[in-house]
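cron nightly-structures :: item 1 of 1
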Amino acid sequence: MQLRYQYRVYPTPGQQESLARAFGCARVVFNDALAARKAAFTADRSYVSDAELSTRLTAAKTTPERAWLSEVSAVVLQQALTDLNTAYRNFFQSVTGKRKGPKMAPPRFRSRKDNRQSIRFTRNARFAVTVGGKLRLPKIGEVKVAWSRDLPSEPSSVTVIKDASGRYFASFVVEVDDQPLPQVDAEVGIDLGLTTFAVLSNGKRIESPKFLHRAERRLARAQRNLSRKQKGSNNRTKARVKVAKAHVKVADTRRDWAHKHTTAIVRETQTIYVEDLCVKGLARTRLAKSVHDAGWSMFTGMLKEKAARSGRYFGKVDRFYPSSQICAPCGHRDGPKPLSVRVWTCPVCAAVLDRDLNASNNVLAAGRAERLNACRGRVSPGLAPAPADEAGTHRKRPPGGL
C-alpha cells in the first residue's frame, strides 16, 4: 500500500526563489500543453498525444521565448505534462461513466495567483535525503526538513507544496506494509450531529469542538483589515497572508482533532458503522456554516482509511434509514421529530430514549443487518412451493369462449 508522509520544510530565501521559478516553469508548461490540445480540438477536433507534447516541450527549450525552462529540473516539467494527462483521463472517464464519484470538469489553466503551488520530483530526478536529514532537490539545493517521524521505506517521489499562507511542505510517497491490529470483541454504531459531534452506541460522547465558531472573531478582524487595504499593494498581500494563516490554523486544529479521535475509535473497536449523511445537501441549508465546521466527511473518511489499514470493518448505513424515528428496544417507528426534541418516550414500550444514543443503537442494528446481507446470510425467508390444496384466484372466462 502506498501512503503519503508530509513534513514541513524551511527553504532559505534563495531556495524560495528557486522554488518560485520551478513553480512558474511547471505552470507555463502545463498551460502551453493545455492550449495546444484546445487549439487542435477547435481546429479539426483532433487530440495531441502525450508523446507529441513531450516533443514540443523539448523543442521549446531551444527557442529564445522558452529558453529559461532549462533553469529547472526536466523532471518537474515532465511531471507537469503527466498532471495534464491525468486530468484529461479523469475527465474522459467521468464523461463516459467509467469513473465513480462526482462529474469531473475539463482541465483549466493554472494561475500564478492560485492559493496552492506544487512541483513533483520522481526517482529520475535523483532527489535524496542526506545524512544530516536535509532534502536534496536538483537545481534547488539541500532544504531543511522538520522530521516528525521516520520514513518507513525509500520514497518513490516527493511533492513540494506551497500553501496559501506561505508555508512549504514535502510530501513523500512511500510503500508501507501495515499489520492488522489485534482482534477485539467490540462493535459500535456512530450517530453524527452538530451540538454533540458524535454519540457512540457504547455510551461514549464526543462533544463538538466548533473550531470555526471559536475563531470567528479573530477571522472577522483579519478580514476587515484586508478589506481596508488597497488592491495591488504590498500591505494587501501581507493582510491576505494573515487571513490565510488564520484559516490554516482552524483547519490544522480540526484535522489534528479528527486524527486523534478516529485513531482511538479504530484501536478500541473491531466493527464500526456510521450513517451515510448527505453533506452536500445539508451544506445548502441554514446550518451550512455549522455543517462545514463539523467536518463529517473528513472524520468518516479517516475512519474508513484507518479501518482498512488496521484490519477493521467499516460500514455505512443507508442515509434514508430513519434512525431517529425508531425505538431501539422495541422497534416501534414513532415518526419524524423536530431537532429541538432531544428526549422522547416510546408510546408502545414506554421507554425514555435519548435521541442521539437511540439513533446510534439503531445505526448499529442496521449496520449488522446490512453486513449479514452482504455476507449472503438469510435476511428474509426464501421461496417455498405452494401446497396443492391452497386456495387461489382464477381468471374469469369470457362469456361464450375460452
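cron nightly-structures :: done
Residues 378-391 have pLDDT under 50 and may be disordered.
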